[in-house]
Design brief:
By secondary structure, this protein is mostly helical. 43% of the residues lie in helices and 0% in strands. The chain has 7 helices and no strands. Helix 5 crosses helix 7. The chain is elongated. This is Tn7-like transposition protein C. It comes from Pseudomonas syringae pv. maculicola.
Length: 145
């Protein structure tokens, strides 16, 4: 969906901190693990009998489909959950309908500084591992949900 413009549809939130925050209400729902597994998984079309008869230099292009295989592991589910939580928790303190957020934004535009009650809800994490073990593939699969 690169470059796509999508009209937001807002979903009522069951979690108290998320309720009434249009930034969170416009996000996709929190995924159950079974749905996350299904969405993260990618098993490309297997080589067909006709493709098996192709010349080797041509057949190698069919084998290249294996690069797109994504078999979800527990790590994928943990990363998906961490991203979901990270985004939502970050938006808790940025509710555009909250008087505190509006007051903080106005203070940033003027000479007055209003830092007393502003507390960042932004968190972060890092993904570290050996080269070639699937960090980028996992992140791409999860961020494409």
């Amino acid at each position: 969906m690169k470059g796509a413009q999508i009209f937001a549809s807002y979903t009522k939130q069951a979690i108290t901190e998320y309720a009434g925050n249009p930034l969170i209400e416009a996000l996709p729902p929190i995924l159950p693990e079974t749905v996350a597994i299904e969405l993260i998984s990618n098993f490309p079309q297997p080589v067909t009998p006709e493709e098996l008869d192709l010349e080797g230099t041509t057949r190698i292009h069919c084998i290249d489909r294996l690069r797109t295989v994504v078999q979800p592991f527990l790590l994928h589910l943990e990363l998906e959950s961490m991203f979901s939580l990270l985004i939502r928790r970050g938006y808790v303190g940025r509710n555009p309908t909250s008087p505190d957020t509006v007051r903080h934004l106005h203070s940033l535009s003027g000479s007055q500084r209003y830092h007393d009650s502003f507390k960042s809800t932004a968190d972060s994490f890092s993904v570290v591992g050996l080269s070639g073990i699937g960090k980028s593939t996992a992140l791409h699969a999860i961020l494409s949900l």
